[in-house]
Specification:
Blueprint: H1 3-20, E1 35-36, E2 46-48, H2 50-58, H3 62-73, E3 79-85, E4 89-94, H4 96-100, H5 102-109, E5 123-127, H6 139-157, E6 161-168, H7 173-189, H8 206-218, H9 227-252, E7 259-262, H10 263-268, H11 271-281, E8 285-288, E9 306-309, E10 320-323, H12 331-344, E11 349-355, H13 362-372, E12 378-384, E13 387-391, E14 394-395, H14 408-415, H15 417-423, E15 433-436, H16 448-469, H17 477-480, H18 491-501, H19 503-513, H20 517-539, H21 551-575
Parallel strand pairs: 5-6, 5-11, 6-7, 11-12, 13-15
Antiparallel strand pairs: 1-2, 2-4, 3-4, 8-9, 9-10, 13-14
Family: Belongs to the class-I aminoacyl-tRNA synthetase family.
Subcellular location: Cytoplasm
GO molecular function: arginine-tRNA ligase activity; ATP binding
Length: about 575
Amino acid sequence: MNPHKFIRDEILKALDGLVAEGKLTGGLDTTRVNVEPPREAQHGDLATNAAMVLAKPAGLKPVDLAKALVAKLAAHPQVSEASVAGPGFINLRLKDEFWQARLADILASGTDYGTSSMGAGASVNVEYVSANPTGPLHIAHARGAVIGDALASLLAKAGHRVTREYYINDAGAQVDVLARSTYLRYREALGDDIGTIPEGLYPGDYLKDAGAALADRDGRKWFDKPESEWLAPIRAFAIDAMMALIRDDLKSLGIEQEVFSSERRLVEVGAVQKAFDTLKSRDLIYVGVLEPPKGKAPDDWEPRPQTLFRATQFGDDVDRPLQKSDGSWTYFANDIAYHYDKFMRGFPTMIDIWGADHGGYIKRMQAAVTAITGGKGALDVKICQLVKLMRGGQPVKMSKRAGTFVTLREVVDEVGRDVVRFIMLTRKNDMPLDFDLEKVLEQSRDNPVFYVQYAHARASSVLRHAAEEMGDIDLSPPALAQAPATRLTDSAELGLIKLMASWPRLVESAAEAHEPHRVAFYLYDLAAAFHGLWNKGKDEASLRFLIAGDRDVTVARLAMVKALTVVIASGLGIFGVKPVEEMR
């Protein structure tokens, strides 16, 4: 059960009762009625804005409608207290029995607890990483990869049908540079003294492997040939090699995307022309001269007539070029075609995870999606701010393999996949993140990875100890679901249960906002509540989990502890992190 949804449904029934009694106008729009925790915990368990949003259309004062609704809700069998706050908000306190019964829900559902049908199977495309295929992924790519992957899992848990996608930027000048860099390493593999890597080419040692593989495959076939003959085939070879490297990097992080879309293929099959023709048919294309931009001119600006998209009609600051004066497409034109392709594949909802340097590109891309889909498509862009990699508080900048940056693989190999995945979600995506290679392995409350995993391990140790000391107790979830949960009456116990019971709402709200970091915050709070209860039991013997001579309270507390492991595992599952049974 989702307690918030349950109480909302009960509020709607109470409103129907007021309508039946002639105290409220019928047919009111209740979509804005919500139920959430009150701002102050001492005000109750839940709060609703029902009277605030319905009073005006009903021709009533909010406080009058709130009083009438409170009279109904106070009589509900699960409500212990209902009161009006401020101008018409309603605070509710539910009976302890209601919360205690939620343990059975958690134990019956297992890690499926929190799974929702909110998304109703709607298709969502989440595109993330999409790094240029010119080398291994670095630590900043890891952040976008984890956020995108966790968001996809979160949306799936909330009932959406999710496709994970990678867009291969293989049509720009950077892949020609890759081809030339690979050709140089190819010559090196064949014994040529290449000297210092020329300015403008990629210097990383990772291309030595690609050059050697090309030499093994083709021998001296390209050694003395002009660039016009080898550029295209070596470019294709190098892109494939780099994408294999990237896929392997992502796999080390536990990420496997279902779809890899090629920019070059979109151009070759005429998808860009198709998108252009679609916009033109809607009178959204014209030829004009743009005002010179302030500051540094972008690559697609020219002081001459260009083919422009009427982006300002859809909220952008200026109209945008789609073709250059030589007739070639701009990057923006290719990106429009790609998003149109996603829409035509059945994804009206698109989410892109971009790096920090793409913030200025959001407005034009959202304008283009609105235009090309006739308003039927929506694009949400999540910008991932920079990751500052440190060791003991000192910056780490150089890579042994890449030469200019620290690779994702190096970080995963040093601290582990689960640590990388969790830490990347401990800040909102648009906030900078400090990643200290030493601190992320510390065993302290300041390390959220340890703190959450320790809660799961500590709870697991309680269950193991119970099995050893009280072997006749059935610790299976079905048996624990029958535990006398009404014996759990301490405020810390009830607080922990209420927090666990809020997990279904957290899943839905985080999915709706496209914010997987909320899960990390929740798990930390949940761990803190459990550790607090553990410490309270150290001071008060009556609150320990195993009470000699009181089997009922022991079984009830073991049910609570088992439920905690279930909820933590459910949350970590969204992150792709495995809960641990023991801390090393």
